[in-house]
């Protein structure tokens, strides 16, 4: 399954930014076991590249293991070497350009129409509307008017309650960090993480 298909099928990208590398790895595995196979591991987290390497070794080639907060060309190259097959950026720039050049699946951070046009011209896989909380579902709906066919993924302030409103506004998926992961990647309760994962899965299956 390619990334675009996986995104539309699963409708959720889990975002992990942990202060504890071991806990972050356990969080990736718990999410995979809970049926959430699209995971972004932010490079701003503790030993993120090590977490990506371990997750790739454990989950195999078929898993979608993303590197997030990719800013530079070096970030993109190191993430790919660690085993990331998805690159997520907060905006446009060298990290995104290098990721596209390498042929990696990309979720490019955009907010304005001009940024959407620039990202689409690069040939990105999907558009990360970030921070989505700046305008909410109404902004996504307005943004889709000139870009009705493009795949938008709202990220930032997305919880289970508002996720459905984004889907109703035309999002193909949502990206969710702390409302899903909570403190699991910092050593928190994995059972609570599993409960939240089930809640989000139910929303995304509607």
TrEMBL record:
<dbReference type="InterPro" id="IPR000887">
    <property type="entry name" value="Aldlse_KDPG_KHG"/>
</dbReference>
<keyword id="KW-0456">Lyase</keyword>
<dbReference type="Pfam" id="PF01081">
    <property type="entry name" value="Aldolase"/>
</dbReference>
<comment type="subunit">
    <text>Homotrimer.</text>
</comment>
<dbReference type="InterPro" id="IPR031338">
    <property type="entry name" value="KDPG/KHG_AS_2"/>
</dbReference>
<keyword id="KW-0119">Carbohydrate metabolism</keyword>
<comment type="pathway">
    <text>Carbohydrate acid metabolism.</text>
</comment>
<protein>
    <submittedName>
        <fullName>Bifunctional 4-hydroxy-2-oxoglutarate aldolase/2-dehydro-3-deoxy-phosphogluconate aldolase</fullName>
    </submittedName>
</protein>
<comment type="similarity">
    <text>Belongs to the KHG/KDPG aldolase family.</text>
</comment>
<dbReference type="InterPro" id="IPR013785">
    <property type="entry name" value="Aldolase_TIM"/>
</dbReference>
